[in-house]
Write a structure and sequence with these properties.
- The chain is an alpha+beta fold and about 475 residues long.
- The chain has eight helices and 23 strands.
- It folds into two domains: about 280 residues, P-loop containing nucleotide triphosphate hydrolases (Rossmann fold); about 90 residues, Immunoglobulin-like (Sandwich).
- It is about 20% helix and about 30% strand.
- Strands 1, 2, 3, 4, 5, 6, 7, 8, 9, 10, 11, 12, 13 and 14 form a 14-stranded mixed sheet that branches. Strands 17-18-23-22 form a four-stranded antiparallel sheet, with no helix packed on it. A three-stranded antiparallel sheet has the order 19-20-21, with no helix packed on it.
- Strand 13 and strand 14 form a beta hairpin.
- The protein is globular, with a radius of gyration of 24 Å.
- The chain starts with a helix and ends in an 8-residue tail after the last strand.
- Belongs to the small heat shock protein (HSP20) family.
C-alpha cells in the first residue's frame, strides 16, 4: 500500500535493522496515516513541527513498497475553515466517525486511499481562516499560505470544498486557479459543493441552477464509470476558469432524501476521475518532497537573519530531528531540549499577498507596475501604469491564457549618499497576469498614452467542455 512508501521517508529508525521506531512517534486514532504538524512558522524557533502517526500502523510498515505503490495520484483537499473537508475525505476513504465528532485538521495531514484505491493519496490542510489571537495573525497568515503552496505543488488533483457558495469561496477558487497557472504541471480541478444543510432534491436542483450553472456558466454532463465491475452513470457539471476545466459534484445532508439521490454517485464519480490519467502520477515519497519544497521558501519567508546571530544563511533549512519526532531547523537537529535557546528569526517585512490574501506572490519587495483589469462577457480590458519607460525597455508576451511583462525600473540616474524616501523600488520585474477565460490573440490591441498602456482583446469561443 502507498502508506508504506510514505512512512519510508521517516528518519527515526533502529540502527541495526532500519526498522521504523514507532514508539518514538505520538499516535492518534483518526483518519490520517501521517500528520505533519505545521501549525505555525513561528514553531521553527524552538521545537519545530511534530510528526504524528496513526495507531496500529505496524502491519503497513512491514509491507515492503512495490513498484505499484511507490507512485500514484496525489490529491490536495482545499477549502475554507469548517466547509466539510474531513466529511468528504471520510466518505472517499470509507471511514465512519462518531456522530457530531469535531475534528480539527493540523498542518498537512496525509492518508492513503484504502484497499480499493491503493494508488491514491490524499493531503488535507488546516482550513483557511482558522481563528487565532491577534498577536499570532501574521505568522498564521504566512503559515496558511505556505500550506497551500506545498499541497498544490505536490498534488496532481485539487479538490476544493465549498458549502452554499459565498463570495469568499469564489475568491478562494479564483486565487487557487490563478496560482496553479504557474505550476510546472497541469492540475486537474474538482469542486465539491457540500450542501450539508440541504435535505430535498428540489432544493438541491435550485441551488445547482443558481450557484453552479448561472455563477460558473457550467454545463450539465452525464458520465459513465465502471464501479465494482458494473457500468454506472453519474451527473456532474463542467465549467472553465483560467483555461482549467472544473468538474462540479454535489453532496447533500448525510442521510437525507437528497443524499440518496446525489451522494454515492458523486463519490463514485470523483474516485473514478482520480483513477483515469497515468500522466498525473507523483512519487509517494511525500515527506521528502515536502521538506525539499519548503526549504526553497524559508529564506524568502524569513529574509535575512539578524547579523548578530552569526549563523550562515544555509542554516535556514529544515530536516528531521536525529532522535525526536520533529521537523526542525538544521542547526537544532541534535539538540536534546528543543524549547531552550530559541533561534532568532522573524518573518520578512516584504511579503506581498495576492488580492485574496491566500498566496504569497512577492517575497522580495520588488517594484511592480500598478494594473487595472476589467472583464465583460465579450472580452478583457487591461490598464498598466508604466510611466518612465522608453520604447524597447519592456518585453511583453501575450498568449490565450495570460500576459507576461518583463522590464526594469531604473533609479533615473540619481546617485544619492543618503536615502530619505523611496516609493518605487528600482530593479527588474516580471509581471504575470492570467486571464480567467482564454482570449483570441488575433484580436489583441495595444495603445500607449502618457505612461498608461491600454490592452484589449476579445474572448475565445468557450465551447468544447467534455
Amino acid at each position: 500500500m502507498a502508506v508504506a512508501t510514505i512512512l519510508s521517508d521517516l528518519a527515526l529508525r533502529d540502527k541495526d535493522n532500519g526498522t521504523l521506531l514507532l514508539a518514538k512517534y505520538r499516535q492518534h486514532d483518526l483518519l490520517y496515516d501521517v500528520i505533519i504538524g505545521i501549525n505555525s512558522l513561528e514553531d521553527l524557533k524552538t521545537c519545530g513541527w511534530e510528526i504524528i502517526l496513526k495507531k496500529n500502523e505496524q502491519k503497513r510498515v512491514l509491507q515492503e513498497p512495490t513498484s505499484t505503490t511507490t507512485d500514484g495520484v496525489t490529491v490536495a483537499i482545499l477549502g475554507a475553515y469548517n466547509r466539510g473537508k474531513i466529511f468528504l475525505l471520510s466518505k472517499l476513504c470509507n471511514v465512519v466517525f462518531p456522530h457530531n465528532h469535531l475534528i480539527h485538521t493540523e498542518g498537512i495531514s496525509i492518508t492513503a486511499g484504502g484497499k480499493e484505491y491503493i494508488d491514491i493519496v490524499f493531503m488535507d490542510t488546516a482550513g483557511t481562516d482558522t481563528p487565532v489571537t491577534s498577536e499570532k495573525l501574521a505568522h498564521q497568515r504566512a503559515t496558511e499560505a505556505l500550506l497551500r503552496e506545498v499541497v498544490v505543488h505536490l498534488s496532481s488533483f485539487i479538490i476544493i470544498v465549498v458549502n452554499r457558495l459565498r463570495a469568499t469561496d469564489q475568491v478562494y477558487i479564483d486565487k487557487v486557479l490563478e496560482h496553479c497557472k504557474y505550476q510546472d504541471d497541469r492540475k486537474r480541478i474538482i469542486i465539491v459543493h457540500n450542501l450539508d444543510d440541504i435535505e430535498t432534491a428540489a432544493d438541491v436542483n435550485k441551488i445547482i441552477e443558481e450557484e453552479i450553472m448561472l455563477t460558473f456558466s457550467a454545463l450539465r454532463l452525464e458520465k459513465q464509470f465502471r464501479v465494482n465491475g458494473k457500468i454506472t452513470s453519474t451527473l456532474c457539471y463542467a465549467s472553465k476558469l483560467y483555461n482549467f476545466q472544473l468538474n462540479h459534484f454535489i453532496l447533500a445532508k448525510d442521510g437525507s432524501q437528497a443524499a440518496n439521490v446525489w451522494n454515492q454517485k458523486s463519490l463514485d464519480g470523483i474516485m473514478n476521475i482520480l483513477q483515469v490519467p497515468t500522466e498525473a502520477k507523483r512519487s509517494f515519497h511525500i515527506v521528502t518532497a515536502m521538506l525539499t519544497f519548503i526549504n526553497t521558501r524559508l529564506i524568502q519567508l524569513f529574509g535575512k537573519k539578524p547579523a548578530e546571530s552569526g549563523d550562515d544563511q544555509d542554516d535556514l533549512q529544515i530536516v528531521q530531528h536525529d532522535s525526536q519526532p520533529y521537523i526542525v531547523l538544521c542547526s537544532r537537529k541534535h539538540l536534546p531540549e528543543l524549547m531552550k535557546d530559541p533561534h532568532p528569526m522573524e518573518l520578512s517585512g516584504k511579503l506581498v499577498y495576492d488580492d485574496g490574501g491566500y498566496f504569497i506572490k512577492n517575497t522580495g519587495g520588488l517594484w511592480e507596475p500598478r494594473i487595472n483589469f476589467y472583464e465583460n462577457k465579450d472580452g478583457i480590458r487591461l490598464f498598466l501604469e508604466l510611466s518612465g519607460f522608453k520604447k524597447g525597455e519592456l518585453d511583453t508576451a501575450i498568449a490565450e491564457t495570460g500576459i507576461t511583462i518583463n522590464g526594469s525600473r531604473n533609479d533615473f540616474g540619481v546617485q544619492a549618499v543618503d536615502i530619505i524616501h523611496i516609493s518605487q523600488i528600482p530593479g527588474k520585474f516580471t509581471l504575470n497576469i492570467p486571464f480567467k477565460h482564454a482570449v483570441d490573440v488575433s484580436t489583441v490591441k495595444s495603445e500607449r498614452h502618457e505612461g498608461i498602456i491600454y490592452i484589449t482583446a476579445l474572448k475565445k469561443n468557450l465551447d468544447g467542455l467534455k
